[in-house]
Amino acid sequence: MSLVLGFAENSIQLVPDGTLILHVLIILVMVYVLNATLYKPINQILESREKRTRGRLSEAQEIMKSVKERLADYEGSLRQARSEAYALAESQRAEAMIERQQKVNEMRAQLAQTIATEKEAIQGQAAQAQASLEVESHQIARDISSRVLHRSISDAIN
């Protein structure tokens, strides 16, 4: 039996006694003290860090959204400015073409007028030349006739 009692002294007794209540009270006091001094401040720090992180993240997302909107507005205004520039260039080109065509038409009209006056002048000169040639041809014919016939020819012959 002493052998059995020897084992009983070294074994754990599972019979609750008054110290159990003391241990539970000590644990509860420790939990309250640790919660008040350690866990709440740490949880507050972690919570504020999480709020700042989420706040910064949402702020960054808002900034990115604003940047995207501004970029879209910029690209839209750039496209509009390009189309306006192309339209302006096209209208100026069309005006230049119309002006060029008007100048070409004016030059053609002046050229046609100049050609007409030159034709009239040439026709007048041709008529003069023909008249003078006719007079000269009669003169030459008389000279040739008088030389061939060895006598003078009167002006009565036309």
Q: Can you characterise this structure?
A:
- This protein has 158 residues and is mainly alpha-helical.
- The protein is 89% helix and 0% strand.
- It contains 2 helices and no strands.
- It is rod-shaped, with a radius of gyration of 63 Å.
- The N terminus is likely disordered.
- Give the topology string: H per helix, E per strand: HH
Shape: rod-shaped
Question: Can you summarize the main beta sheet?
Answer: none
Number of strands: 0
Helix content: over 70%
Q: How much of the polypeptide forms β-strand, as a percent range? A: under 5%
Concise account of the structure shown:
The protein is an all-alpha fold and 158 residues long.
Which key terms come to mind for this protein?
0% strand, rod-shaped, 158 residues, disordered N terminus, mainly alpha, 2 helices
List the helices and strands and how they pair.
Blueprint: H1 2-10, H2 18-149
